[in-house]
Design goal:
The complex is a heterodimer of chains A (190) and B (191). Chain A is mainly α. Chain A has one domain: Fumarate Reductase Cytochrome B subunit (Up-down Bundle). In chain A, 64% of the residues lie in helices and 0% in strands. Chain A contains 4 helices and no strands. Chain A is elongated, with a radius of gyration of 19 Å. Chain A starts with 13 loop residues before the first helix and ends in a 17-residue tail after the last helix. An 8-stranded antiparallel beta barrel of chain B has the order 1-4-5-7-8-9-10-11. The chains are: A mainly alpha (190), B mainly beta (191). The interface between A and B is medium-sized, with 15 and 19 residues.
Chain lengths: 190, 191
């Protein structure tokens, strides 16, 4: 059978699978890029990496909006029957938190560039000028959003680590299909 | 980006005469030392989405020599110290001084030496010369307009556009324009 674009009651469709891995890879890449770009010695390279980080941040924001819309129209498959009560209750909270961070991180970055007194324009991938959020610019606001973006990034990456740990636990210890169903799309029959 | 300084000298020559019809070339002729007190070298770079940012160099030196017989043989030499760049935003100044832009530590001077001065009007002249920044030299043109000649002091308003990418200062394009607009007031004192 053809791989299905939509989720079923037990499996993910390929749309969700692609969005999941694409966002996951960019998210982790953004963390690494953000870490490096503010520590690198060359001011020129730092400037260019920051612009790249902003570009990917907006790409991420677009992808996550698409992902949330898709998720709202496509219920996630149920957890396997073998999953215990505690995880059955906490997993949705962890997933909700992951979604919240995916939205909050790009928005906090957008707020940061919007209030920065450096007034550096934002052009995602040099394609068009992204307007700033309607926030007042000041050194104090810049410090606030810089700290917020930083804390959110560290908390978000910790959550991602937890998510990866849980997926590996499902695969190697519990030996269920929680990880593999995020790799192989449903083919409609399940 | 900034470098330009240009040549006013040329224009000086030119200008001098015409407008101030009262100012005979013979009166303006001579050598002038650019006086920082009455001079300014400002620049502006447009930004994507509108606006731009402005800056100025506070330290520079130079001479203007106006030839008595042939305006075309007049000369302007200018040296700008990029370390003195100021935009009103310390972080931007540090960025401009760094090797991302001026590399002021290794290239402490931006030089302009005129090669020709052509009169274009009663008080205006086109000054062509060699601009050197970060070890790269290219011909540049500046427009000079005579602002006045009084008691051994001559004043020019000089404008011109320089493409910064040629001097290894293309960082930030296309967020920031490659074109740097220079706007200078150069006051020379005879002697």
């Amino acid at each position: 059978m053809q791989p299905s674009i939509a989720n079923t009651s037990t499996r993910y469709g390929w749309a969700m699978i692609i969005l999941h891995w694409l966002i996951g890879i960019i998210f982790i890449g953004q963390f690494a890029l953000g870490f490096v770009m503010v520590r690198i010695e060359s001011q020129r390279t730092s400037f260019e990496l920051i612009q790249l980080h902003k570009s990917f941040g907006f790409l991420l924001l677009g992808l996550i909006i698409l992902r949330i819309a898709w998720r709202l129209g496509n219920a996630a498959p149920a957890l396997p029957a073998s999953v215990g009560t505690l995880e059955r209750r906490t997993a949705p909270l962890a997933h909700f938190a992951l979604y919240a961070f995916q939205v909050a991180l790009p928005l906090s970055g957008w707020a940061l560039v919007s209030v920065s007194t450096l007034e550096i324009p934002t052009m995602p991938f040099n394609q068009f000028v992204m307007p700033n959020l309607p926030l007042a610019e000041s050194d104090a606001a810049e410090s606030f959003w810089s700290a917020a973006h930083w804390y959110l990034a560290y908390a978000g990456i910790a959550l991602v680590a937890l998510h990866i740990g849980a997926a590996l636990r499902h695969h190697f210890l519990l030996r269920d299909n929680v990880l593999t169903r995020m790799i192989t799309p449903s083919s409609g029959g399940e | 980006m900034k470098a330009r300084i240009l040549g006013l000298a040329a224009f000086a020559a030119c200008l001098v005469m015409p407008v101030y019809a009262a100012v005979a070339l013979s009166e303006a002729a001579g050598s002038y030392t650019i006086s920082p007190a009455g001079s300014s070298i400002r620049f502006s770079i447009g930004k994507a989405g509108g606006g731009g940012f402005d800056g100025a160099f506070s330290r520079f030196k130079g001479t203007i020599r106006i030839d008595n017989r042939d305006v075309g043989r007049s000369r302007v030499d200018l040296i700008i110290y990029p370390e003195s760049v100021g935009t009103g935003q310390g972080r931007i100044d540090a960025f401009l001084r760094s090797d991302a832009v001026f590399d002021a530590a290794n290239s402490p001077e931006i030089q302009f030496r005129s090669t020709s001065v052509t009169r274009t009007g009663d008080t205006t002249a086109l000054v062509t010369g060699q601009l050197t920044a970060r070890g790269k030299t290219f011909p540049e043109k500046f427009t000079a307009e005579l602002g006045g000649l009084k008691g051994g002091t001559i004043k020019f308003h000089v404008t011109g556009k320089v493409l910064r990418s040629r001097y290894g200062m293309d960082v930030g394009t296309p967020l920031y324009s490659n074109v740097v607009d220079f706007d200078m007031t150069l006051t020379g004192r005879r002697g």
